[in-house]
Amino acid sequence: MRADRLVATLLLLQTRGRVTAAQVADELEVSERTARRDLEALSVAGVPVYSQQGRGGGWSLIGGARTDLSGLNAAEARALFMVAGPSSSATPEVRAALRKLVRALPETFRADAQAAANAVFVDPVAWGSASAPQPVFLEALQQAVVDGVQVRLGYAARDRARTTRIVHPLGLVMKGAVWYLMADTAAGMRTFRVGRVTAVERTDDPVVRPDGFDLGELWQSIAAEIDDRRITAWATALTAPEMVPMLRAMFGANLVVGGPTSDGRIEVRIGGRWSGSLASSLAGFGAQLEVVAPIELRDTLRRVGSELVATYGTHPVSGNVRA
Questions:
Q1: Architecture of 2-117 per CATH?
Q2: Average pLDDT for residues 112-117, to the nearest whole number?
Q3: Higher pLDDT, 121 or 88
Q4: Can you list the alpha helix ranges (DSSP code H) found in the chain?
């Protein structure tokens, strides 16, 4: 990504004093033309970079101007490499860029940054789950977002219906282990699951970004809307105060804690994707959680309880199964 190259180029200027476009190209594994264009971009952006022609010439920072990764201090440099270091779940491209950056860091920062890069390992896969492969078109979409170009997107919906449309890719979000593309379309803002993308074809047209667009804010609003749609069943229940932390851990944002009742228990509301799954989740709490509404859910739990008693309460183990 160009931003990675510009930062790396700036740090090379800082640590080496003077560099040629050829040296930058060799270090960052790009063409000499690209390196020269990046050096010129730094100058245009206001960085005090100048070129000197002739023998022994090259590019330098005016007056020996220095920057520590665009103003980062030592603690911030460590944090950067801890979050996206070689041992994290960062993409290979990000890890490669960071390896180049760590070579260009000031000597006083370098040891701490290298140690921080190996201090954290992120495993996004839950216990008992298989690791999902990276979506086929993730890299192509990342590049389209960075380059700011529209793409012709092939997509397979949940019902397997296939569509093709022109979209303005605005950003990518990773939720758990799943990648989503946020894009503007002729029908408005849409969210696409990257794993369902079937084709990505770049166009020559630039992305038009909505005024005030903020990827984080947009995702938070969409995530809240999705959560609301996923929750179709609610239960009102009573439980002991000491059970509330366990309920929070299990149900998270789908738990609403109310006030105490006359008998000292706490009233709570618990949401689930559908009534059957909610009943299954609540049945495991037994007498520690009393559902008071809706009546249909109480009936379901009563039936489940009767079935459990019939299966385990009075009958010996059937067949030749050993206890």
A1: Orthogonal Bundle (1.10)
A2: 58
A3: 121
A4: 2-16, 21-28, 32-44, 74-84, 92-104, 107-117, 138-147, 215-230, 244-251, 275-283, 295-312
Q: Which residues contact 196 (CB under 8 A, 6 or more apart)?
A: 155, 156, 157, 158
Mean local confidence (pLDDT), 122-134: 69
Predicted confidence at residue 106, as pLDDT, reads 55
Helices and strands: H and E segment counts in the chain: 11, 12
Q: What is the pLDDT of residue 78?
A: 56
Beta bridge partners of 312: none
Q: DSSP of 278-300, one letter per residue?
A: HHHHHHTTGGGEEEEE-HHHHHH
pLDDT greater than 90 at residue 282: yes
At residue 190, what are phi and psi to the nearest 5 degrees? -135, 155
**Cβ-based neighbours of 88, under 8 Å, separated by 6 or more:** 82, 95, 120, 121, 122
Q: Looking at domain 138-220, does it have CATH number 2.30.30.520?
A: yes
More confident of the two residues 52 and 170 = 170
- List own/partner pairs for 43-51 with CB under 8 A and 24 or more apart: 47/10, 49/13
Which pLDDT belongs to residue 175? 83
Which CATH class, in words, describes the domain spanning 231-312? alpha beta
